[in-house]
Design a protein that fits this description.
Elements (H helix, E strand, L loop, with lengths): L3 E7 L3 E8 L6 E4 L3 H14 L2 E8 L6 H20 L12 E8 L2 E9 L4 E5 L6 E2 L2 E2 L2 H13 L1 E9 L3 H19 L16
Parallel strand pairs: 3-4, 7-10
Antiparallel strand pairs: 1-2, 2-4, 5-6, 6-10, 8-9
Helix pairs in contact: 1-4, 2-3
Length: 199
């Protein structure tokens, strides 16, 4: 049975509907109102093999902050729900850990994560430009923090090196996708990978 979830969230700042299939084929329908963020989320879906249907209407007349952060919140909740729905309080038998190192031209980024129920973000990246496309580069960290907190995932992201901020961020999103794809694979023996027996 595919592991799916649908999350709807509406505030005074954003209105978001998101459907996710962790066992998909990389199909996507993404509309955030921010072209560069659409591009990153499409890369996430395609390279993770996740089906992602996402629509966000945000207060972009203010800036991109609320949209980026709130999408991170909803995507985090969706991953958590897809891993736990129809299991009650039963632990999730997945690989748990994921790692990927992805190049994009002159840039190299890595992601290491743990589906641990202990949210934590380590973000090691510096951007030289304020914007990539029309997207504030500082919001990459905000997006990833919101995802980590709401998914319960420990997330370490690093840009090892690079020059072009577009390349750095895209390599980071692709590394994130590949690491998550590895971590959410079901453990074939059905056991939770934890000495405690539960996450």
């Amino acid at each position: 049975m595919p592991r799916t979830s649908t999350i709807n969230r509406e505030t005074r700042e954003t209105k978001i509907s998101l459907s996710l299939n962790l066992d998909g084929t990389g199909d996507y329908n993404v509309s955030t109102g921010i072209g560069f963020l659409d591009h990153m989320l499409v890369s996430f879906a395609v390279h993770g093999g996740f089906d992602l249907d996402l629509k966000c209407e945000g207060d972009l007349n203010v800036d991109s902050h609320h949209t980026a952060e709130d999408i991170g919140i909803v995507l985090g909740k969706a991953v958590k729900a897809a891993l736990t729905e129809n299991r009650g309080n039963a632990p999730v038998p997945v690989n748990r850990y994921g790692f990927a190192k992805i190049p994009m031209d002159e840039s190299l980024a890595s992601c290491v994560l743990d589906i641990s129920a202990r949210p934590f973000l380590v973000f090691n990246a510096e951007f030289t430009a304020e914007k990539a496309g029309g997207f504030d580069t500082c919001l990459v960290e905000e997006f990833m923090r919101a995802f980590s907190v709401n998914s319960g995932i420990t997330l370490h992201l690093t840009v090892d090196y690079g020059i072009n901020d577009h390349h750095k961020i895209e390599a980071m999103f692709k590394a994130f996708a590949y690491a998550l794809k590895e971590a959410v694979k079901e453990n074939p023996d059905g056991k939770v990978i934890s000495a405690k027996g539960s996450l």
